[in-house]
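Reviewer comment 2.1 asked that we show a complete input and output for one of the modelled complexes. We chose the adenosine-5-diphosphoribose case, as it is the one discussed in the main text.
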Amino acid sequence: MPPYQRIVILTGAGISAESGVATFRDKDGIWSKYSIEDVATPEAFRRDPKRVHDFYNMRRRDHATVKPNAAHYALARLEAEHNGEVTLVTQNIDALHEQAGSKNLIHMHGELLKAWCLLCDGRFAWEADLSLETICPGCGRPHGLRPDVVWFGEMPYEMDRIGALLEAADLFLSIGTSGNVYPAAGFVALARRAGAHTVELNLEPSEGASYFADTIHGPATQVVPAYVERVLKT
Ligand code: APR
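Response of the prediction step:
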């Protein structure tokens, strides 16, 4: 394995599964209990903001009970110890990568523990429940705050920066994602075009498994620390 200089890592819900955070498309996943059209689109928020707030309030309360797992800690160790650039792009809105120590981190789908005021455009760390009546700490008004998460039909955050990182990558790891949702599902093709070595680490083959030069299947808490160990030995 050559010494990699510019590593880009994409994570999805599967890396947080063993921390007790529900994934979306596994059996009993979030989308088997809730409809995306009811809780994860701008139209849903306009139509029934209380239902959307309740969905994220429940996930925010659940988040207080979970902790990072060995896979999150392994990626933070890779960033801290690897002699090269390591950038973590996560689709997850949980804060488990930060809690494990990752710093060079992009939340392309936003963050569960952040609120965004549509009246003053302020963004705020937020752990409590949100409702239409919640007063914005920035502009002092109600009826403006929403979860700072990217809904279906909205543009993920920092796409230009992510595109530039993928074009320069020499190693691309995709961890715990089903490869169902674009643009993240297309990252492997961009990385391959840049000449990067591409590896999928997932419980089972994802939709995009055939695009990867290498696939390693198993629970993230086992396969991710082992792979990080190999990279750090190069
Ligand atoms: N270890 C590794 N992989 C796992 C584990 C585990 N313990 N448990 C589940 N997985 C894998 C599943 O096999 C699946 O491929 O994680 C993947 C989870 O896929 P999804 O539930 O579709 O989650 P994700 O890919 O992150 O979804 C992408 O879709 O709904 C939107 O915005 C949401 O960010 C999310 C996006």
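DSSP finds nine helices and nine strands in the chain. We note this here for comparison with the apo prediction described in Section 3.2.
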